[in-house]
Amino acid sequence: MLLWNFKNFKRSEFECNCGCNILDYYENNYLYMVLYFLQPLREDINKPIHIISGIRCVKHNKAIGGSAYSYHTNNGTNFPFRPTAVDFKVYDLPQYFVADRIKENTNLNYCGYKMYIDKENYCQGHLDFRGYKARW
Ligand SMILES: [Zn+2]
Q: Quick check: helix, strand or coil at residue 25?
């Protein structure tokens, strides 16, 4: 049984930002995301990874303009891959450094990943476990 006992990530960081506690129902999805992807990446880059958005209930996803079949939500048929998405920021490294480290991480060949630069020129990423490699 997996528990929220990671060095750098707390359960509360992955909760739906509307406060609905939907994470209770999909806890294992996010435990595995941290275990296999986020904690290893955190140790690799050795800088804080700030979670901007984890799980989203359908209502909250809609409210913030997320796509209807977002991997942040449980809206869709391909459970257990959904919901697994996280959006994150790394403030302390040049954006392409993080992208390069992600390219080297073979676990991430099973993930969807998008890297983009936010308005303040920080590196922001989207990561989800969809069972196959997708980049956009
Ligand atoms: Zn919610």
A: helix
User: C-alpha dihedral over 22, 26, 30, 35, to 10 degrees?
Assistant: 150
Q: Return the domain boundaries, the chain.
A: 11-135
Report which residue type is found at 110. Y
Q: What is the pTM of this model?
A: 0.91
Give residue-wise pLDDT tens across range 1-22.
Answer: 789 999 999 999 999 999 999 9
* Cα–ligand 1 centroid distance for 70 (angstroms): 14
CATH number 3.30.1380 given to 11-135 = yes
Beta partners for residue 113, in sequence order:
127, 135
Element housing 51 (H / E): strand 50-53
Give the Å distance between the CA of 73 and the centre of ligand 1. 9
